[in-house]
Amino acid sequence: MKKPLNYLCFIVFAFISLTIQAQDIKLPSPDFSKDLVSALKPSKDLGLSSGVSTAVEKENKSFASDIVGIMSGSGDDASKKLKINDRKKQRDGVIGKAFGSDTALQSYKKDIKKQIAPFKRKYKLASLVL
Predict the structure, then answer these.
(1) Neighbour tally for 33: CB within 10 Å
(2) In angstroms, rounded to a whole number, what is the distance separating the alpha carbons of residues 85 and 15?
(3) pTM for the full model?
């Protein structure tokens, strides 16, 4: 009885070992940039002026293209993660200045979390972006 149980444990362990993969970051499909920009777009419910909305959309497009550029560049995953985090901090500063108000910024971030959530399963990179 002990022998079949050992074999079963070994098979399960081998199966789990094969399905676990390293968390390496790969450049996602070309739709990633388009999906990211659409998820980061501020909603009409926020009541932003056209100037603020335009500035945020411009920064979001630049952010998406920079992320794709970082991912398609050379370097290891650790350096890419650092570059993405630095770019994310830079974007947060620009977005914070554009919004000015903390309540509008918090509402925007809350909306973005809802929009990005489905992409976290589709694109592993989306979890680093937010």
Answers:
(1) 16
(2) 34
(3) 0.72
Q: What is the pLDDT of residues 29-72, one digit of tens each?
A: 677 788 888 888 888 887 788 888 888 899 999 998 898 888 88
Cα–Cα distance measured from residue 22 to residue 20, given in angstroms and rounded to the nearest whole number: 7
Give the residue with greater pLDDT, 81 vs 4.
Answer: 81
- CA-to-CA distance for 122 and 126, rounded, in angstroms? 8
Burial class (CB in 10 A: 0-12, 13-18, 19+), 114: exposed
Tokens representing residue 82 in the block: 């650092």
- By the 8 A CB rule, do 88 and 13 touch? no
Cα separation, 117 vs 129, in Å, equals: 11
Amino acid at 46: L
Is the sign of the CA dihedral 55, 98, 88, 47 positive or negative? negative
Residue 118: CA atoms inside 13 Å, Cβ hemisphere, count?
A: 9
Is 129's pLDDT higher than 80? Answer: no
Which residue has better confidence, 44 or 28? 44
